[in-house]
Write a structure and sequence with these properties.
6 helices; 6-stranded mixed sheet; Rossmann fold; Phosphoribulokinase/uridine kinase domain-containing protein; two-stranded antiparallel ribbon; P-loop_NTPase; 196 residues; alpha/beta; 32% helix; 8 strands; globular
């Protein structure tokens, strides 16, 4: 078992690891772990949540399901593929305050560490591109509590779903892509799986 601090120490000993994918169910602690690694290692990050469609383009009503109908998946995959192959990518950010697309963000690896964080980060299409794959494991009870505390999930009306049969099946597949070792998480409610 490794803590977030032990994961940081591991990464400091592995300068060959340049691109990391962090995946897990919604509200499982992925961003918390990513922020820990960013703070400690000065990594750059691509957040899956930056690839939301403009709110006007969301299907109504927004139903729990996976793949999420309000995500720009092709743009997300293209950004990760471009970063892995050319060392740079650019994409439009979702502006959560206005519900529209905002400015363009460019990420350049330039020999540094880059983290790709989000529910689809270990999708089979891009999983092999990473030097390190991390799965954030969270049990249903604590995930539900975290979701409700964050104002998402059943009855929230904000479009973010965190549990459905299709998402569970996809999550099992993405978790498998991580070739798992157990790690307790950066977030107290989560544990992490790490694979190289």
């Amino acid at each position: 078992m490794m803590t977030a601090d032990e994961t940081v120490a591991f990464l400091r000993k592995r300068p060959d690891i340049r691109l990391i994918g962090i995946d897990g169910l919604p509200v499982s602690g992925k961003s918390t772990l990513a922020e820990s690694l960013i703070d400690a290692l000065g990594a750059k990050v691509i957040y899956f949540d930056d690839f939301i469609l403009p709110k006007k383009d969301w299907p109504e009503p927004t139903e729990p399901g996976f793949p999420f109908l309000y995500v720009r998946y092709e743009e997300f995959f293209h950004a990760v593929e471009a970063l892995a192959t050319s060392g740079t990518c650019s994409y439009r950010l979702y502006d959560w305050a206005s519900g529209t697309l905002g400015g363009t963000r460019t990420v350049e690896a330039a020999g540094g560490l880059v983290i790709v964080e989000g529910v689809s980060a270990l999708s089979p299409r891009i999983s092999a591109l990473y030097d390190l794959r991390i799965w954030v494991e969270s049990d249903a009870k604590t995930t539900l509590a975290a979701a409700l505390a964050r104002g998402v999930g059943p009855g929230s009306g904000n479009g973010e779903s965190f549990s459905c049969p299709a998402l569970s099946a996809i999550s099992k597949r993405n978790r498998k892509n991580a070739r798992i070792l157990s790690l307790p998480g950066a977030a107290p409610r989560a544990s992490h799986a790490l694979a190289i």
